[in-house]
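User: Here's a structure from my thesis project, written as C-alpha cells. My advisor, Dr. K., wants to see whether a designed sequence matches the one we expressed. Can you design one independently, without my sequence as a hint?
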C-alpha cells in the first residue's frame, strides 16, 4: 500500500476527507469526553458541522504555510473552496445519519 504524500494528504483533508477526519474526532470526543457525551444531540451536530468546516480550513492554512498551494489573500480560489467543502461534507454526513435505517443507528 502506497502512503500519501503531504500534498495528497492536504488535498484529501480539504476535500472528501473533511467528513472522515471530523467523524474520527467526534468518535474520540464521544468515547472519551464525558462532558461531550452529556450534550444534547443538536449540540453534537453543531460540533460536527464546525469540525467539518474547520478541517479543510486548517488543511488550507497548512498548505499555504508549507508552500504546497494557495495564498493568504486569495479568498475566491483558496478559502471559499475550503468553506464550501466543509459545508458539503457536514451536509452529507448529517443526511446520511438522518436517513440511516434505525438498526444502523444502534
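Assistant: Designed independently from the structure alone:
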Amino acid at each position: 500500500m502506497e502512503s500519501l504524500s503531504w500534498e495528497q494528504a492536504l488535498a484529501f483533508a480539504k476535500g472528501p476527507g473533511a467528513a472522515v477526519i471530523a467523524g474520527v474526532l467526534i468518535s474520540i470526543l464521544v468515547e472519551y469526553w464525558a462532558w461531550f457525551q452529556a450534550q444534547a444531540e443538536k449540540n453534537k451536530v453543531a460540533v460536527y458541522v464546525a469540525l467539518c468546516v474547520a478541517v479543510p480550513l486548517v488543511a488550507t492554512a497548512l498548505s499555504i504555510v508549507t508552500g504546497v498551494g494557495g495564498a493568504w489573500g486569495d479568498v475566491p480560489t483558496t478559502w471559499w473552496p475550503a468553506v464550501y467543502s466543509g459545508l458539503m461534507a457536514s451536509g452529507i454526513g448529517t443526511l446520511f445519519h438522518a436517513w440511516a435505517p434505525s438498526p444502523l443507528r444502534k
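When you compare it with your expressed construct, this may help: Residues 13-105 form one domain.
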